[in-house]
């Protein structure tokens, strides 16, 4: 059984075509030598069926989380990892961040190799967020808005505020001071 280390940049380039304008991957036509007999049919037949069904079509499918993923030689991979591998010849050293927050936008100018900490500083707003801003919430007991921010050393309390606008301003100032990406906290597309 193949594993992730078996998937090379050369293999990906042989099996897939990357369109830099759209950031999409497409299956290339395959040769019979890349197929085995399934016991009932020869490799040539299996190759012809595969090419008829997939060659030239977009590779890898979108998931419920929005990322495209699929199987290459029995190994499940995400499209942005394949694009990175094909472009740079090696996996990223950290996490691949979609700068604009769109997990389907796999254009190279939208992908960057970052640490987990930096990646978490460019997140879309959670679906359960009620205030419309990361790190801002209403505290019924005090009747005030609270602002906080997550940093390497844990949650930092930014204060209690009479208005939501004051709490948001405090949070945005803390984001800027701590190197959060300008897209952090945007709404889902």
List the helices and strands and how they pair.
Blueprint: H1 9-15, E1 16-19, E2 24-27, H2 43-54, E3 61-62, E4 68-72, E5 75-78, H3 79-88, E6 95-98, E7 111-114, H4 116-119, E8 136-139, E9 144-151, E10 154-161, H5 164-177
Antiparallel strand pairs: 1-2, 3-4, 4-5, 6-7, 8-9, 9-10
Helix pairs in contact: 1-3
What are the salient characteristics of this protein?
about 190 residues, alpha+beta, 5 helices, 10 strands, elongated, three-stranded antiparallel beta sheet
Descriptive overview:
- With 189 residues, the chain is an alpha+beta fold.
- 25% of the residues lie in helices and 25% in strands.
- It has helices spanning 9-15, 43-54, 79-88, 116-119, 164-177; strands spanning 16-19, 24-27, 61-62, 68-72, 75-78, 95-98, 111-114, 136-139, 144-151, 154-161.
- The strands form 4 sheets. Strands 3-4-5 form a 3-stranded antiparallel β-sheet. The chain has a 3-stranded antiparallel β-sheet with strand order 8-9-10, covered by helices on one side.
- Helix 1 (9-15) packs across helix 3 (79-88).
- It is elongated and about 75 Å long.
Strand order of the largest sheet: 3-4-5
Largest sheet: 3 strands, antiparallel
- What is the 3D form? elongated
**How many helices does DSSP assign?**
5
Question: Helix content range of the residues, please?
Answer: 10-25%
Radius of gyration: 22 Å
Quote the average pLDDT. Answer: 90
Spell the H/E element sequence: HEEHEEEHEEHEEEH
The number of strands is 10
Structural class: alpha+beta
